[in-house]
Each structure stands twice: as structure tokens, then as C-alpha cells.
Amino acid sequence: MFSRLLYTALFLYYSAFVHAQHPQLIFSRLTVQNGLSHNKVNCILQDKRGFVWLGTEDGLNRFDGKYFSLFRNTPGNTATISKNIITSLLEDEQGIIWIASADAGLTRYDHRLPAAQQFKQYRHNPKDSSSIPINIINAITADKEGYLWLATGGNRVLRFNKQTEKFEAPVKEGTRNALSLVIDNSDTLWVGRQGGGMLKVNIHNLKYNMDHRYSDLYADLPHASVSSLYKDKRGNIWFGSWDKVLYRFNKEQQREEAFASPADDILSFAEDTAGHIWMGGKNNGLFIYDPEKNSFSNLRYDPALEGTIADDRINCIYIGKDGMVWLGTNRGVSIFNPSQQPFSQQFLDKNGKDLQIYDLQTINGNLWAGTSDGLYIRTKGNTAFSHIPLQYKGRPLVVSKIFRDDDGTLYLGTNFTLFICNPETLTLSLLPNTEKDEVIYNIIDSRIISIIKDTIAGHPVLITVPYGHFIAYYDFITQRWTSREDTTIDIIKKFNLADHLIRKLYKTSKGNIWMATGKMGLGKWNIKNALPWLTYYSGAINNNIYDVVEAPTGKLWISTYGGGLNQFDPVTDSFTHITTSSNLLEGLQLDGWQNVWMVSNGNLHKYDPYIASYSTYQLPDLEKSGGVSGSVFKDADGQMYVAGNNYIVAFRPEKIKEERKYPKVFFTDFQVFNASFSERLKEKEIRLPHNENYFTFTFSAPEFMQRNTTYAYMLEGFDKDWIEAGDRNYASYSNLDGGYYILKVKASSSKGNWGNEFTAIRIRIIPPFWKAWWFFLLCAAVIATATYAVYRYRINELLDRQAIRNKIAQDLHDNVGSTLSSIGVYSEVAQIYLQQQKHNDLRSTLEKIRDACGEMISELSDTVWTINPRNDHMSTILQRMDSFARPLLKAQGVNFHLNFDIDITELNLEMTKRKNFYLIFKEAVSNAYKYAQCRNLWVEVKEGPHMLQLIVKDDGKGFDAKTVKSANTLSGNGLQNMQRRAKEMRGECVINSVPGEGTTLTLRFPIP
Question: In sequence order, what are the residues at sequence separation of 6 or more whose Cβ sits closer than 8 angstroms to the Cβ of residue 483?
Fold first, then answer.
């Protein structure tokens, strides 16, 4: 440690480093009005994805350059941050963010986990000895071995093992309050303590050392309380102290140094790419140390200027990946954007006069500004403007246009008239006979805004535009003015002046004159009979033309107030609208690379025609007067100027670099029916059932330089083209058909220039089973099978019908044919008996012929009845059975009994079964009628399980089935026929008969 004498010497040495004037730094601000949760910002971090995290007194904020996402503690919910006073932030090598709080311990945040598991709290629990021993954490850092080190307010310094989630306290002596932490290049942890000086801990063996002199709280020692620690790129350790002295441990010289200035408690440090050390003071604002010059500069809060730092207390400083500097203060965040440095703001009047700037021109190397209060001139080599108030006959003049003729004559257009100005003496004079023109002399409520030199009717003239009064020109030959009041020439009619609101006359490189009007669009100055004749072109999106400038190609760039940027081709007389441009454009100018620079909405805009890129730049505006307006000016050296209220902004176009046009897009959330499933964003393919196909993806592209990021997205497989969403950072879809999709999102900070980079995620909507491929295949198979089954059914039906026809034909052939043959034979026998006069034999033969004819007629009747489909119903069959049996048996005195289940009347029998069923019944009744000699015949029809049963029973004489092989009639029916018919029905026919006890026939066959 150094003695007090040495420190005094160092103070005297470093006191020579006086404060230097730092180049102008313009800061923008973020406050609660922009969406920040609280204005007091304690810590700032930019994560690996590019998001900036802001730890405040009331929650944690994630910022992407446009939108804030807020994370707050919910009491009783452990899936949130532990508490809302955030003191320190750290992102480890795995991308996990560790959040330290002032009163609730430590919180881990992993955005890749499910929403309910993203936050994990480590809070002190008196009942759990393994919990964090104290909840007050002032600072957090990480070593190379992956341990976290915590500076606590009451338990010294803690080491946290992320794998075991165990806390340990390697130091158990000395002051208990640790304020700051840093690890040097030799793996030593420096701990800045409150009232105990510096503590140093070896992160490997946990050995430590401290200066025990600091145990005496009243000892006169330097940096007894170290509020902040920082290691620069050279390995030097900087630290701020409560004694308002800045200290540095010089690594190369291995000694401690003290600085007499700045005299403030430094709360935070950061180092930029140039090696400058940025320091945040507790009371005196921002200090910047330049190691090359060994000098400090100091920037303070100025309540009269909006572009200064937000507050003189700077709690934290963070320099992002893009070089932007973020200052956390008690009044929000101040942001220094290096991309704004090419723009230099200069005020014309030091007293802050309300001053409108109309024109800027370089005259003899000096910058002249025509303003609402005369001239302001900045002479070459000076940085300040001198005010030259102008008057004419006691009337203050507004200088609205400065024009230098080819012959060197300098003209000033004012709100009174046109003056000749001597650039050396700044005296004013009038052109001869100016007083005689009622328009140009003592202009009524207007001013001259445009001047060109040309010829009219062969005379050289100076043409001016007193806004609202058409034009007025001065003829150098006749030395007189001509305006709308000259009834002899009548320029309104003869020149076809259709619009009195003329903003500009512009002469091209070929000498053509174009006119920008407020109502009639673009006017072309043609020569007709030695006089000009105006032709108007109104094909632009808006006819309110503000400015015109010629491109080297001969085409004209047109700015419109309401229709954006347009290009006019004089060859084809056609307009091309630049759709990405801002609508409310004012002045425009071309740089050396033919980029179009424009003023709109208070900002500067640029359009690059070669890559169709449109950019917007936020310019310095310390007084927040509403930004720039009017024209864009360019001097002979190519430097450009735009003007605001009482100030100009100068810039060189070639120094304005656009480093990052296509910020990388990250998916930040995935919701299904408004329920978050952010953890699924890490899946290679998100699969959703068909009834959960209403989803929303939220995305973000962190970008802080321009802060005008726009998005475009496309769902490949659904959208036919990219959808430009502007600054909307989400995409929603619903009712998608099953299938594969890819959501692509890209971002740009330059309107109209999207590039080829995008972020994509695969989505699969699982279709309902009735839309799945296998279901269609199954349906196709079922339909094919059914079609084939119908086909086979029809073929089988046709075959069955053909078989029935063949059977009927065969039966008719067998029965009718054999019967007719028998009749023929009997007829010949009868003829023989007739010749032989054997009357008894003849009578018997004729009876046989009669019986055979009757059987044949009955057979034909049964066949016709069987094939009639109207007789399929069982009730019809039963009716025919009764009609056949009852009359027949009654004639012989046999009682006929027909019984059936009422349910069987609803049955339908197909033709073959109906025929065989009826013929078996008929054969059984006929046999009983002919041979049984019975007194009663019982017929019963009943339904069994999938069976129909016919029982025919008589009380006749019966027979011995073994001795009777057949009982054929002339028609061929018999017992064998009944067995054959039963077999055709896939049934069985059983005959039981005992001589003297009657006969029973039982027929069983299946039914559907």
C-alpha cells in the first residue's frame, strides 16, 4: 500500500491532466414514456442474441431497439424473477442470464425452457441451510471455471457452483459488505468492500489476503470503500471510491495510481474500441479518459438541452457490440450512437433565437445562411456564425433565396423584393425600375423562393418565384419587370401558368426548365412563338411537388408532399414511384454516388437507386425543436446541410456508413390459442394436431443504430409471397390444412432492401384421420373392394338367375317333357285299345292321360307362380299353401290344419328356396292325399334360430321306409325329389313313418 505522502505526490502529478473539451456527443433517451418500467436503471447487459437487458428499480426490461418486454416478480409465483430491484446482470457461456437483486437473492433465466421453468429463484430460506445465506447482492461476476461470484450486503463474497447449486463463503473475516467485483488476468478476484478496502481471493485455491489496517474504520487510508471495479484491455484495474478519488492499478508497473481528477465517486466503467475509458460519476456526470492525451473530458446534464446525458448520476455504463454506449441513470437511459457522429449540429444564434433557415450557399468560401432575420455568415476557418441583419427603408428583411449569376452578381430574394448584394460590403441595391412593378416590389405576404437566369423572347431575363404570385421576371434589355399585373403581355394566359403555388424553377444540364407546383404537378417550360409555354405532367402519386433535381441519366427525381419520391423520365413522360419512400417529402439532393438525400418528418432520408435501399437517419437535435425541414443544400466540396430551427446539420455523405442492414431475427415466443409454448422454438419441427392450428409466432431483430427495423415473413406452403409487416413483430395463422410448412422471417433496417438472410422454423400440421393419406388409401381400398363385391354380387346374381332359368328349363324339360312323352305313349295305346274294342283298358288309359295332363298343368302353374317376385313374401306362400291343400283334402274328407308363427309372415324367401319349399310341401300333401288314407293332416311352419322349419304330419296308415324306395308319380315327383330340393336349400328333409301310425315329414333350411 502507498503512504499518504506518495498519494499526495500522485495527486499533484495527475492534477496536470486538466479537462479537455470532448467532441460533441449527442445522446438519445429511453424513459418510462418509451416503455421502460422505471427510470432508475442500475445495470445493463447485451446478451449473445443481441437483446439489451435493463435492470431497474422496478423490474427487468428486454429491449430490441423498438419494443420493451417487461419481467416482474409476481408474489407467490416462483416462476418469475425473485424481486424487482435489479442490481447486476451476467450472461454465462451457456447463454443463461443471472439476475442479482437488492432484496431477494439470485435468479436464473433461460429463455429456451418452458415458460413456467424459465426463471428459477435462489432466495434465502432460514429453514434451509443450503440456500443462499443472504438476499442482498450488489454485484456478480464469473470466473473461467464456471463459478459465479457474488458481492453481498452482509455476507462478504460468495461462490456459487452452478452444477451443484451450492453456495460457499471462502472468506469468513473482515467487513461483511462487498460492493464490487472484478477478476484480473492472474485469476485473482478483487473485491471492493465497504469500509474494509480491497480483498483479493485466488479463485483456484480460495486463499485470500486483505490489508488489516482497514479494520480501523477511522484510519486515514485511501479507498476504504470501493464502489466500483473494472479491468481494461491492458489488464489495468480501475476502481472508484467513496473518497471521490479515481484509482488505477497499473499492471505493467505493478503499482497503484491515483487521479486528482475527476473528483467524484465513480460508480461504473466501460472501455470503447478506441481505448477510451468511460466513467460514470455519482454526482458529476460522465467522464471520458483519453489514454493517448492523458486527459479527461466531462459531460454533464443540461436541463435546457435534450441531447445531453439524462442525469449527472450514472449508475452503470455498457458498450454494446455495435459500439453504442448505454448509460443507466436515475432518469432513464442515455444512448450514444456512433453512427450519428458524421452529423454535426451547429446553432446559428447563440441566444437561441427562433430562427427559420431558408437557404444556404457558399459565397467566396464562406457559408451564407438566408434566414427569417437577415443573413448569418460563417467565414472560412471560423466555427461560429455572424449575424448580418438586413433592412430596407427601415423594414427588417427575410432572406429566403441566395442566387449568384454567372457574371458574379449576387442576388438576395427577400420578403420585400429582389436585391443586388455586394458580398464585400453587404450593401443592397435594386434593379432599375423595380419599384414600378406591383408584384415584385413590396411583395404581399410572401417571399422569393426560387431564382434562375434564362431568355424570354430572345432577351436575357432573371426569373423569380414570389410564392403565391405565379412568376415575375426581369428583362435585362428593357430593364423592366413583368408579372401577373402586366396586362399587355398577360403571362398567365400566354405562358399557360395554371398554378400560382410554384415552389421551384429548376434548370437542367441541357438548359431545360422544369417547374415544381403545389397543385398541377410537374411543369415543363417549352418555347412557343419565342415565349414560354407550360406543359403539366400529373402522373406522380401526388401533384404537390416540393423539389426537383436532375440525375446524370437525364431523369428527374421528384419529391412530393404526400406522394413520396418519384422518378420522371422526360423521354417517355412517365413517372416511377418509389414505394418504400416516406410520403411527406420536402427538399432533396444528390450526392457524388447519385444517392438521393431527402428531408421528411424532421429526419434525413436516403434512397440508393442501385440497390433500391431506403434509409432513415435520426439527426442531432439538442433542443428538440421538431427536427429539420425544407431543402437539402450541397456546397462545392460535396458537403451537405439540412436546417432546423436556428441550427444546421452538416454531414459528408461518404462518411455515413450503414454497417448492418439485415439484423438477425430471433423467435421469442410461440403461442397456441394465446398459451405460450416458447420451449418448442428449439425443436427442429413443431408438430401440431389439426385442432390446435391457431398459433402465433413472435420474433425480434435487435437493432439499435437506426432503430427503424421492419419485418417481412412468409409461411411457405401457404403464403404465395413475402408479407411486409412493417414494425409488427408477430405472425398469426389459423385453420391451416394438414401438411408441412416453413415460417420464414427476415428483417431490415433499410426499407425496401431485404437481402437474402432469413430465420426459419418448420411446422407440421397433423391432419385429422379423415384427411390422412392412409385414410384416403383405406377409403380407396374399401371403395374398390365394395365395387368389386357389387360387381361379383351382380355376376353371382346373374349366374344364379341363369342357374334358376336352367333349372326351370330342366324341370320343364324333365317333367313336362316326360309327361307329354307319356301322354303320347298312352295315346297310341288308347288307339290300339280302341281298335281292339277293349273298352275297359281304353277307359283306364284315358284316365291316365287325364291325370298326366292335370299334373302338367299344375306343374306349369307352380313354376309360373314361383318365378313371380311378388310372391317372395311368406304371407303369400302361406296363402297359396292353404289354397292348394284345403280344397284338395276336403274333397276326400281329410281335415286340414295349418299353423304358423305370426312373425314369419314378415319373411321374404328368394325364388329358389320359395319354389323348393312350396314343392316339398305340395309333394308331402299330395302323397298324404293319395296314399295315407288319413283323416287329419297337420302342417306347421315355425322359425328357429336362423332356420325355418316345415312339419307335415298325418294320421294315416304309414309305410315302411325301408321297403319303399320311391313313390313316383307320372310327373316325376317323389321322395327323392324332396331330398334333392332340401339339399338345394342347404337344408334337410327327414321322413318318419310307422305302419299304422301315420307319417311325419320335417323340413329344415337356413334363412338370413
Answer: 437, 438, 439, 440, 469, 470, 471, 472, 491
